[in-house]
Amino acid sequence: MKACVIHGAGQVRVEDVETPVPQAGQVALSFAYGGVCGSDIHYFQHGRVGDSILREPMILGHEFSAAIAGLGDGVEGFALGDKVAVTPALPCLECEYCQRDLTNLCTDMSFMGSAAHFPHCNGGFASELVVEARQCIKLPSDADLRHVAMAEPYAVALHAVAMAGEVKGATVLVTGAGVIGQMCAVAARAAGAERIFISDIAPEALERSKGLGADAVYNAADIDEMRKLTDTPICDVVFEASGAPSALNSAIAATKPRGTVVQVGFLPPQAPVDLNKLLTREITLHGTYRFIDEFAEAVRQITTGEVDLRPMISADMNIADPDAVFARALEKSETLKVMVHFE
User: Fold this and answer.
1) What pLDDT does 333 receive?
2) Cβ(39)–Cβ(341) under 8 Å?
3) Cα separation, 299 vs 64, whole angstroms
4) Dihedrals phi, psi of 175, to nearest 5 degrees
5) Do 148 and 299 form a contact (C-beta atoms < 8 A)?
């Protein structure tokens, strides 16, 4: 079979690897579509994502859809050819947090396409692969597998909205107009938010945001423009999706008293942030990490047509030329989500 394997920073190749055989409780899959994520890009650029450092070759990818190609012993509820959504998360189900249904905080998590543990956990960018059957959600026969491949990042956004609490009727600001920021806006709208504002430093990103349904956009590089949000704060909830310390400062400044800020993007290890307004306005600051049961909800909303994330797909590319794929993904001014396939 073919697989997209990362060996180190800038060293990614499509290689022939041994085809796995499903064991008891597992299913074999035929890859359909996959989305290139920010973490894939970090591995490509730096050979690491935070403290997750590549120490051996690893198959990339954790956003993908597939079809059932084989069944291990004891697997029920699936048939050959079934379309499936696949969560990359495989929590242990035994630790304290799993027992409290906080599986995203599992202390022994296996997450596809991650170098957090050694040996690394291979990802899903392979023409054929094997996963646990419990990672799969059977889809309707007419499901759009290209669209379903966006369920994982949308689940991240749904979890962020859940961490914010009630957003129905709220005025919401999203700082950072990348894929996750745009999906936070969609998820907040689906949860009943009344007004959605988006800020970013890139004019091209703001133009895209207008087309994707933002009620207003703000250039975060323009101090005077941002003062429209911060001089008299009107935002009930802010999702900080850029990971920039300056954006978190703006997020806090734009939040009303007793409002909520949800930090979605990863901040640098030492981030200069002014937290005084957390006290004087009694603002709640939440972290958010991956997702719990929101993956199934993301799949449901996508397959029922409640949300349409396809306008965020900027390119469909054959992964046979991974350097070209990552070059396109790195064109941030023109690209949101790059979707890959093996055909």
Assistant:
1) 80
2) no
3) 12
4) -100, 120
5) yes
C-alpha dihedral, 157 to 28 to 93 to 300, nearest 10°: 30
**Token pair in block for residue 272:** 């200069």
Q: Which two tokens stand for residue 47?
A: 């050979």
Domain 154-287 sits in CATH at 3.40.50.720
Q: Confidence class of residue 343 from pLDDT cuts 50, 70 and 90? A: confident
d(CA 85, CA 138): 7
- Provide the pLDDT for residue 51: 84
Sequential DSSP letters for 67-127: EEEEE-TT--S--TT-EEEE--EE--S-SHHHHTT-GGG-TT-EETTB-SSSS-B--S-BS
In the Cβ-directed half-sphere of 3, how many Cα atoms lie within 13 Å?
A: 22
Q: What percent of the chain has pLDDT over 90?
A: 95
* CA of residue 266 relative to chain centroid, distance: 12
Distance CA 221, CA 187 (A): 26
Cβ contact 62:89 at 8 Å: no
Length reported for the chain: 343
| Residue boundaries of the structural domains of the chain | 2-150+309-341, 154-287
Mean pLDDT of 47-62: 94
**118 pLDDT exceeds 90?**
yes
Amino acid identity of residue 150, one-letter, is M
- Judge whether residue 240 has pLDDT over 90: yes
**Strand partners of residue 84:** 66, 138
Query: Mutual orientation of helices 179-190 and 151-164 as an angle, nearest 10°?
Result: 60
Q: Which CATH number among 3.40.50.12160, 3.50.30.30, 3.90.180.10, 3.20.20.70 corresponds to the domain 2-150+309-341?
A: 3.90.180.10
Q: Which of 323, 337, 339, 321 is nearest to 2 (CA)?
A: 321
**CB distance 225 to 218 below 8 Å:** yes
Q: What are 4-36's pLDDT values in tens digits?
A: 999 999 999 999 999 999 999 999 999 999 999
Pairing verdict, β 136-138 and 83-86: antiparallel
